[in-house]
Design goal:
Blueprint (H helix, E strand, L loop, with lengths): L2 H14 L9 E10 L2 E5 L5 E5 L15 E6 L6 E9 L1 H9 L5 H12 L33 H15 L1
Parallel strand pairs: 3-5
Antiparallel strand pairs: 1-2, 1-4, 2-3, 4-5
Length: 164
């Protein structure tokens, strides 16, 4: 199988395979990347350990801090205790929550993250409705990096009159 075909199948699996965790699998949150395709994950109970990214995901799919994955425990190794089986996107998380498989500890984090995704009003620039309304319309802001076409035309007319 060529690399392109393999990548296509991996993308389809990640995007369209809505899998629920089995008895020996669990949903964990990625807390950091340790390099060499190792990721530190946190369980709903708060335990942290390393999970490895399988070869099929390497250089095809990237995960970052705060993402959720389904892991399966592995027996070999002291530090690495699990292998990533599925990478959960927003649609997958919504599906798992609807099926009541989502851990309650992570539900609180999701709702707090969704409520904090907007920028506070004090960090936004002032709005035109915040300024004094005199009933006058303000001219639009000019882009100082470009010459105004109206100024060009006026200067052309002035040059023509000066030549006569």
């Amino acid at each position: 199988m060529s690399a392109t075909t393999k990548r296509k199948h991996v993308y389809q699996e990640v995007l369209y395979d809505y899998a629920l965790p089995t008895d020996n699998q669990s949903i964990v949150k990625v807390t950091s990347s340790r390099g060499n395709n190792l990721h530190e994950v946190q369980t709903p109970s708060g335990d942290t350990y390393l999970a490895s990214m399988p070869c099929k995901f390497r250089k095809n799919v990237w995960i970052k801090r705060g993402d959720y994955v389904i892991v399966e425990p592995i027996e070999e190794g002291d530090r690495v205790k699990a292998e990533i089986v599925h990478i959960l996107l927003k649609e997958h998380i919504r599906y798992i929550r609807n099926m009541n498989f989502w851990p309650k500890e992570f539900t609180d984090e999701l709702t707090s993250n969704q409520s904090n995704q907007f920028i506070p009003d004090d960090l936004l620039p002032p709005n035109s409705s915040d300024d004094d309304d005199d009933g006058e319309e303000r001219p639009e802001q000019m882009n100082l990096n470009r010459r105004d076409e109206a100024l060009k035309e006026d200067s052309d007319e002035d040059e023509e009159e000066g030549e006569k």
